[in-house]
Structure formats: C-alpha cells, structure tokens
From TrEMBL:
Species the sequence originates in: Azospirillum rugosum
Subunit structure: Monomer.
FPG-type domain mapped to chain residues: 240-280
Cofactor note: Binds 1 zinc ion per subunit.
InterPro entries recorded: FPG_cat (IPR012319), FPG_Glyclase (IPR020629), FPG_N (IPR035937), H2TH_FPG (IPR015886), Ribosomal_uS13-like_H2TH (IPR010979), Znf_DNA_glyclase/AP_lyase (IPR000214)
CDD domains: EcFpg-like_N
Record: residues binding DNA: H93, R112, R155
Catalytic activity: 2'-deoxyribonucleotide-(2'-deoxyribose 5'-phosphate)-2'-deoxyribonucleotide-DNA = a 3'-end 2'-deoxyribonucleotide-(2,3-dehydro-2,3-deoxyribose 5'-phosphate)-DNA + a 5'-end 5'-phospho-2'-deoxyribonucleoside-DNA + H(+); Hydrolysis of DNA containing ring-opened 7-methylguanine residues, releasing 2,6-diamino-4-hydroxy-5-(N-methyl)formamidopyrimidine
Keywords: DNA damage, DNA repair, DNA-binding, Glycosidase, Hydrolase, Lyase, Metal-binding, Multifunctional enzyme, Zinc, Zinc-finger
Domain Formamidopyrimidine-DNA glycosylase catalytic: 2-115
UniProt gene name: mutM
Designated name of the protein: Formamidopyrimidine-DNA glycosylase
Length: 280
C-alpha cells in the first residue's frame, strides 16, 4: 500500500495540473470503490475550481472553491493517471475521471478497488471519520522527539507496532518504519514506552530524514505504485534493511556468516527487517 512518500509524490504531481483549473467534466464509472461514492458526487465537483491539492497522512485532499474537499485514498493499487486529453476509450479499471478547462484529464485507476473517494467540507474536514483520529504529521513543524515520546508513553506494544498505528504518527507504513528504526539504531521489538529522551529524538529525526529522502526519490515502486507522471519511484534502491534479509548490514561490520546479516521477523502479520547487532 502506498505510504506517505508515495502519496506526497502523487499530490505534487497533481498540483500543477489541477490547482487553479475548473473541473468541466467529472465521470464516475462505477457505484463504489472500497465504499460507495457519496450522493451527487459528480454534480458537487463539476464546475468547481481547484484551490489546492494537499496531503493528510495517506490521503489526497483536493480543496475546491466552494469549500468542498475531495478526499481520495489510493488503496493497494490505485493510480492517478494524467493525460493531456481525453482518451479514445477508458480501461476497465478507470473508475473516476476529472477533466479540467485546460483539457487535462486525471483518471483514477484502481484494479483491486481498495481505494476510496469521499466528499467533505473545509469546516468539517478535521472531524471526518477518516481523519479525526490521525496523529501528528511526521513532516510537520509540530513533530519532534518530545512529541513522539509523549505519544508513545504507556504503550506496551513493540515500537514497530506503535509507529504503524496511525493515531500515534500519521502516514507511516511498514517500509519506512523499518528504515527509520534502522537509522535510529532502535530495535523493532523494543517496548514503545521505553523510547524516550535521546532515543525519541533520534527516532523522530530518522523518521523525517527517511521520509524526506523517499519523497526526493519519488517514493518506492514495489508492485503497483507509479508517480502521477507514470514514472516509477526509486527509493527501493536505497533501502538499508527492507527486503534485504540475509544481506550484510550497511551500518556495521558484522560477519554475515556468523550473524546471518539483516534479519526478517514477523510482527502483527507484517515483515520487519533489521540488524540485531546494530539495533537495540
């Protein structure tokens, strides 16, 4: 599933094509995705000018000139495809089509249909059921070591599980949690509540650094993800531990033959990759 860097990259790709443009035609080509579309979905979008394209956690937020906000989630396989004009025909998995007054067409394609779209208003957005319980943005000014330590206080789960909880920190997923824990030298099995002081500072800094580098690389393309331009992301070529089981740790000189190198364990049904020699 696309994580924060992938969604941020998609938002940055959409913004130049949507911001300031009027949606002259909106097509909804099926009644539902993960959930049914809201009533009057196309009518509420058609004729409206796009003010901004933003991100909250893993959600794309398209703000319109009448205060309406289009909320979109890519799900497992969703893609926003930008074309300079309307195609001759749409594909079977092209579910929503936005056409602007410049002739540009943005198509939401989702083969598995785990994505979603909903509508809110700017006034009610923060209280929307999809958004109201989200934790702080890890790239926001309010995120820091002390803030992270406060959110982890009293949590007796593993730090890996805690960071995947969207109410603790918004937008983090399996790949970037593994990478940030490696960079901060914290074991994924450590009890979350014990990540305080200098450890929390290191982890908060590592989270921001890993996410920043991933966004600069256009995200990670492992299966279905593509940027809005259609290009692949390239951060998968910079992984330190993710999907590198048995390979040498890039952060220490441990003997792979003796230690087994990077290890893979399963936590809450998700693969975790780490170096037991480096991460404590």
């Amino acid at each position: 599933m696309p994580e924060l860097p992938e969604v941020e990259t998609v938002c940055r790709g959409l913004a130049p094509h949507l911001e300031g443009r009027v949606l002259v035609q909106v097509l909804q080509r099926r009644p539902n995705l993960r959930f049914p579309f809201p009533p009057d979905f196309c009518a509420r979008l058609t004729g409206r000018r796009v003010e901004s394209v933003r991100r909250r956690a893993k959600y794309i937020l398209v703000h319109l000139d009448d205060g309406t906000v289009l909320i979109a989630h890519l799900g497992m396989s969703g893609r926003m495809i930008i074309t300079p004009e309307r195609p001759a025909e749409y594909g079977a998995h092209d579910h929503v089509v936005l056409e602007t007054d410049a002739g540009t067409v943005v198509t939401f394609n989702d083969a598995r249909r785990f994505g979603l779209m909903d509508l809110a208003t700017a006034e009610t957005l923060a209280g929307h059921p999809l958004l109201r319980s989200l934790g702080p943005e890890p790239l926001g000014n309010e995120f820091s070591g002390p803030v992270l330590a406060e959110r982890l206080a009293g949590r007796m789960t593993s730090i890996k599980a805690a960071l995947l909880d969207q109410t603790v920190v918004a937008g983090l997923g399996n790949i970037y949690v593994s990478e940030a824990l490696f960079l901060s030298r914290i074991s994924p099995t450590r009890i979350a509540a014990t990540v305080t002081g200098a450890k929390a500072d290191r982890l908060a800094t590592a989270i921001r650094e890993v996410l920043g580098r991933a966004i600069a690389a256009g995200g990670s393309s492992l299966r279905d993800y593509r940027q809005a331009s259609g290009e692949l992301g390239y951060f998968q070529h910079q992984f330190s531990v993710y999907d590198r089981e048995g390979q040498p740790c890039p952060g220490c000189t441990c003997d792979v033959a003796r230690t087994g190198g990077i290890q893979r364990i399963v936590q809450a049904g998700r693969s975790t990759f780490y170096c037991p020699q480096r991460q404590r």
